[in-house]
Amino acid sequence: MKTFQLLRQLWQLGILVKIHGSKDARFIQDQANDILNFHHKSLDDKFYQPIKHYTSGLRITGSWFATLRGYPLSKKEIMAGRYLAAMTPLFDALFDDEGLGEENIRFAISSENPENENIILLHAFRDNLYDNVKNKGPIEHFLEKIIQSQVDSLRQKEPVISLDEIRQITNDKGGFALLGCRSILDHPLDEKEQEAVYQLGALVQLCNDVFDVWEDTRKGIKTLADGNPNLAPLRSEYLHLINSVLRFFESLNYKKPNLHKFFMQMMLIIGRGLVCIDFLEKSQAENNGVFDPRNMQREQLICDMEKPGNFLKSLKYSLNYQDFFIN
Predict the structure, then answer these.
(1) Rounded to an integer, what distance in angstroms lies between the CA atom of residue 28 and that of residue 83?
(2) Cα angle vertex 255, ends 9, 129, to 5°?
(3) Cβ neighbour number for residue 25 with a 10 Å cutoff
(4) Helical H segments across 39-162, by residue range
């Protein structure tokens, strides 16, 4: 029965990604073209390439929180999610591609008459986002936190940075990003749920870092995924975060059936990270027991989740937490 429920949630996840995520991406592309055509400008393909990834991600997180409260997203909440997703690659362009310092980044974002295509779109999507939220105070607050966490993350390229500092940056980057996703929904967000969402965001960010270890290493970005020549502490931290997140949400005032569906949806994403850690541990064993991504090959660091074996392993990991799924 639990396996059937999990597969049903997986099917619904596929619809969110394949159908709705693609539809949202096309909508944003059309909006971006219209906005830039008005300003007699165009945008590099770097914006359009990842947009489906971000729109799909907002559909997934929106589904998580809608499942918790027990009713689907409204049209305005869906629209807000589209615009928030569209802002993410624009922030990435500012922080990663243009290499601006904090002062220049904040000046560009606050500019009233921007010339930069990214800033023009960022302002337009931000205004459209505010038009579709019930209360713009929380999203304004968390957007500021997101910007600051992005600024802080620039330190991950410094030659010397402690694991504790990397951990704090990782937690803030993921935690505030997910709180931004949650804050665009209409139902109230209390302090207890804020802490739960923050912890889940930290876990999602760690999951992303595990999959991105090859790319981050090439860019000189230090993460928890490559901070130790032995991956055992990473696995331990990942498992600890999973259990912490589950306990945080279990204590919230949501109906048990909603929580159980939410846990299944969450683990379908988070379980993939455990499969990737398995893969990296195998690569470590093949590298004389030392995990050193700067001196390892691409095929040793990129875990292909399209492989049937890895896909089935992720389902198995999800089912390992079946006690949380029982109604």
Answers:
(1) 8
(2) 70
(3) 21
(4) 45-69, 75-92, 102-110, 117-131, 136-153
| Calpha distance 153→207 (Å, rounded) | 16
pTM for the predicted model, two decimal places: 0.94
Digit-coded pLDDT (tens) for 26-64: 999 999 999 999 988 887 777 787 899 999 999 999 999
Binning pLDDT at 50, 70 and 90, where does residue 2 land?
A: low
Comparing CA positions, the residue from 52, 45, 44 lying closest to residue 16 is 52
Distance between CA atoms of 213 and 199, rounded to whole angstroms? Answer: 21
Helix axes 75-92, 117-131, angle to 10 degrees: 160
- CA dist., res. 325 & res. 323, Å (int): 5
Among candidate residues 91, 296, 112, 324, the one with its CA nearest the CA of residue 213: 296
What is the spatial distance between Cα 287 and Cα 130, in angstroms, rounded to a whole number? 50
pLDDT of residue 68: 97
**Separation CA 152–CA 181 (nearest Å):** 20
- The number of angstroms, rounded, from the C-alpha of 201 to the middle of its chain's C-alpha atoms is 7
Distance separating alpha carbons of residues 79 and 28, to the nearest angstrom: 10
Can you spell out the DSSP letters for 191-244?
HHHHHHHHHHHHHHHHHHHHHTHHHHHHHT---GGGS-SSSHHHHHHHHHHHHH
Task: For residue 246, give the nearest of 190, 320, 300, 146 by alpha carbon.
Answer: 320
Cα 224 to chain centroid, rounded: 16
DSSP helix/strand/coil, 51: helix
